[in-house]
Amino acid sequence: MSKVPIRQATQAAIDQAAERLAAGELVVFPTETVYGLGGDATRETAVAAIFEAKGRPAHNPLIAHVADLHVLRQIAVVNAQAEALARAFWPGALTLVLERSASCAVAPLATAGLATIAVRIPAHETALALLRAFGGPVVAPSANVSGRVSPTRAEHVQLTNEQHVAMILDAGPCTIGLESTIVDLSGGWPQLLRPGGITKEQIETVIGAIEQGPQVSDRPSAPGQLESHYAPKARLRINAEAPGEDEAYLAFGDAPDHSGGVQLNLSPKADLSEAAANLYDFLRRLDAAGASAIAVAPIPDEGVGRAINDRLKRAAAPR
Question: Domains along the chain?
Answer without folding.
Answer: 6-212 (3.90.870.10), 235-315 (3.40.50.11030)
